[in-house]
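User: Hi! I'm working on a homework problem where we have to compare a predicted structure to a textbook description. Could you give me the structure for the chain below?
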Amino acid sequence: MRIGNEPLRIAFQGEPGAFSEEAAHRLLGEDVVTVPRQTFDAAFASIAEEEADALLVPVENSLAGSVLRVYDLLLESELTIAAETILPVELHLIGCPGATLPTIRSVESHPMALAQCERLFREHPHWSRVAVDDTAGSVRSVVQSAEVWRAAIAGPRAAQIHGGVILARDVQDSTGNFTRFLLLTDARDDEAAGDKLTLAVRLAHLPGALLAALEPFASRGLNLLKIESRPIHGCPWEYQFFLDVQAGPGTPVDEALAELRQRAQFVRVLGRYMAAPPAVEELKAKAATWRVN
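Assistant: Happy to help. Predicted structure tokens:
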């Protein structure tokens, strides 16, 4: 995807070969330029720093659950969700050339990936786990070390890019392993259309406050797809909520949202977008507004 003659720049957390990079190409095409950033904080800062036009971040995995740091950064930022994509995740055990399963003593990867491979560690209880920032980065580190006792857990793209050897395939606990990614931009689109609405909601710390907040959606037959609670910084034991609501054409979601605003202390629409990846041509039209000056 290009903006004019320039390729769209998409920031992601990790190194070349990361699942986030693969998801960016799946959603936006192979001609986008991917911009690796070491941490989620750095990825979220990339647009303001004029290093990227948008960013793609994982928000939840079907086995390991939500990526909580992304929720916190999303609320701290002024970015908007423009689209989402869901990537099937294949996790392989990868070593350097010369490594074999009997030589392995230590396995490193992102904590989310390690958590998706409990069966592998039960079968090899003498292996130690090492949590690192990125799946692809763990492969690069293992291959560069040339230490046959080290291995990494990552996808096949990382093994190919960094020259790793796949020692065991599909080591995740379940074949139904998917990660959901959000495409974020700093473009405000008050007329955005879609069949999914993501909200951040803060409620009074009172009995029944959450029930009262959800009632406008339930009474109108609107489907709540996800609810996530996060602590309110500076207010111990108080929480804010992230809601995903089905909001297709013709549904009374705007009425429910107006009523919610009367019952909540704070409501922010984080994005209204298509649950399935939008058509490439539609994203091309929107992308023209994303280029930083």
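For your comparison, note the following. The mean pLDDT is 90. The chain has three domains: 1-88+177-189+276-293, 92-168, 195-273. Good luck with the assignment!
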